[in-house]
């Protein structure tokens, strides 16, 4: 499948088994001001390998190999949730990455052609420019929360609104231990906390292999901050880094975390670590559904929500996938899942979650 453009730029599939090809794509991503970690080939390859899905990537390039656009895509196949082509799978961002409108249009058209070829009745773009006719655009469901980091620890504290700042100060005086790394023990502590946290929210946990594979692929550009009390982890977040921005992505806390103020300590410590050890100047708190408690929590930290743009296209007669756990469609399932024993949720969850995408 190759689409020709009048500007002598062609759209073609990338070979993600070729290390040189992946390096060229990643160089383009890292040089682009709108890039996220979810555009990196390592992300796409890791989540596909961990969850039994298929990674694709479309690139726009000239005859001499100069890249002018990238669109990573994950082919999701699930007996429960159906088939879809997603940019990018298991992420909150991705979408078309280019500086040229004509290239964006061509990438969108080529992605839809690929979806049809693969038998996927829907195509989802999470972020990036919104395609035109034939696409369903949503700019009201999700908000993104991002702001600059302060110059030092005290300035970072002062940048947090007064009420939340008081909670952070209390957490600094508490008997809490902070560990940072991406070693097997860090991954194990994180999974212990994260799996309990998502069970409490009523959603299935991702396979542990997903976190291991992302950590392996991204290397020093991914790590985990965990806050423990008397040897027991209570709050943990898996973060990824790109171009001076930290993205706290998979985070959670136990039922005891709130009373221990472990979550307050967790995110402040990540801010300190990102600035001091990762040379970050910006903190991307990720997406939240508008009007939820999680969105309010981020606002308490001084972050203002900005609408995120998602776009979907579906085949005639089809309806878009509904993957939002807050949808009334899943109300009963969520209520039941919250009551499952943790061992059972952790056994069943990965089987289900690997098809969510």
UniProtKB/TrEMBL annotation:
Residue ranges annotated for the BioF2-like acetyltransferase domain, each copy included: 165-298
Pfam short name (any one): Acetyltransf_6
Coiled-coil region(s): none
Source superkingdom: Bacteria
Name by which UniProt lists this protein: FemAB family PEP-CTERM system-associated protein
């Amino acid at each position: 499948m190759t689409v020709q453009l009048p500007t002598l730029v062609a759209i073609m599939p990338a070979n993600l088994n070729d290390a040189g090809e992946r390096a060229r794509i990643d160089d383009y991503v890292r040089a682009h001001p709108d890039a996220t970690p979810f555009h990196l080939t390592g992300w796409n390859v890791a989540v596909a390998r961990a969850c039994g899905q298929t990674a694709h990537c479309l690139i726009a390039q000239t005859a001499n190999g100069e890249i002018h656009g990238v669109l990573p895509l994950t082919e999701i196949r699930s007996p429960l949730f159906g088939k879809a082509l997603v940019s990018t799978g298991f992420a909150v961002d991705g979408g078309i990455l280019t500086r040229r409108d004509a290239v964006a249009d061509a990438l969108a058209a080529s992605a839809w052609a690929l979806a049809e070829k693969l038998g996927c009745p829907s195509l989802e773009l999470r972020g990036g420019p919104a395609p035109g006719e034939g696409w369903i655009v949503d700019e009201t469901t999700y908000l993104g929360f991002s702001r600059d980091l302060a110059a030092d620890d005290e300035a970072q504290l002062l940048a947090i609104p007064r009420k939340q700042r008081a909670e952070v100060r209390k957490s600094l005086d508490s008997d809490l231990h902070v560990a940072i790394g991406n070693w097997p023990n860090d991954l194990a502590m994180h999974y212990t906390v994260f799996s309990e946290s998502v069970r409490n929210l009523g959603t299935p946990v991702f396979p542990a292999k997903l976190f291991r594979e992302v950590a392996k692929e991204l290397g020093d550009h991914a790590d985990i901050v965990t806050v423990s009390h008397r040897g027991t982890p209570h709050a943990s977040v898996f973060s990824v880094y790109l171009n001076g921005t930290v993205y706290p992505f998979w985070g959670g806390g136990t039922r005891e975390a709130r009373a221990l103020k472990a979550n307050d300590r967790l995110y402040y410590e990540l801010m300190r670590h990102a600035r001091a050890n990762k040379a970050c100047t910006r903190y991307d708190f990720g997406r939240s559904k508008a009007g939820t408690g999680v969105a309010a929590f981020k606002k308490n930290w001084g972050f203002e929500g900005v609408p995120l743009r998602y776009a979907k296209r579906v085949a005639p007669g089809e309806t878009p996938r509904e993957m939002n756990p807050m949808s009334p469609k899943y109300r009963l399932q969520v209520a039941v899942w919250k009551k499952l024993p943790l061992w059972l949720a952790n056994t069943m969850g990965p089987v289900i979650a690997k098809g969510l995408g």
